[in-house]
Design brief:
Layout (H helix, E strand, L loop, with lengths): L3 H4 L7 E2 L4 H11 L3 E5 L5 E6 H8 L28 H11 L3 E6 L2 E7 H7 L2 H12 L2
Parallel strand pairs: 1-2
Antiparallel strand pairs: 2-3, 4-5
Length: 138
């Protein structure tokens, strides 16, 4: 049985809650991703920030990217999976929540990240199509 541990990229890249939006934008660009987990000062996952958050919640509101912290604009509600969850549970979490990346938590510790592309490499084409369609629905 394929599990999240088999699919995930580890260690996961993340941002600190105290990082500025400028740092976040550079990290997303460097990693060529549209979202990244955010970890608080206690080391626990506290949110996820997307390129859309940076544009809609920050730039469009006139916030200073050099002084505004990531935790001021990130989404605090984060969908995650555990390392022992099977591929079906991972696909379901992506589909039901319409997200393209899932943090993998072992207890409170961020141990990896799974992307839509990771699922596409594992599932048959028809099932991958179903997941992508579910993620992309309006």
């Amino acid at each position: 049985m394929t599990t999240a541990r088999d699919l995930m990229t580890s260690p996961a890249e993340y941002l600190n809650a105290t990082d500025t939006l400028d740092v976040a934008a550079q990290a997303l660009k460097t990693s060529n991703v549209g979202s990244m987990p955010v970890v608080g000062e206690d080391g626990r996952l506290c949110g996820i920030v997307t390129d859309r958050d940076l544009v809609i919640k920050a730039m469009a509101e006139g916030k200073d990217p050099n002084s505004t912290r990531v935790d001021e604009v990130c989404s605090a509600t984060v969908v995650s999976v555990g390392p022992d969850d099977d591929v079906a549970a991972v696909a379901q979490a992506l589909s039901q929540n319409q997200v393209r990346r899932l943090p993998v938590l072992d207890g409170d510790e961020l141990v990896g990240i799974i992307s839509q592309a990771d699922i596409a490499r594992e599932l048959p084409n028809e099932r991958t199509g179903d997941v992508v369609q579910a993620i992309s629905r309006n």
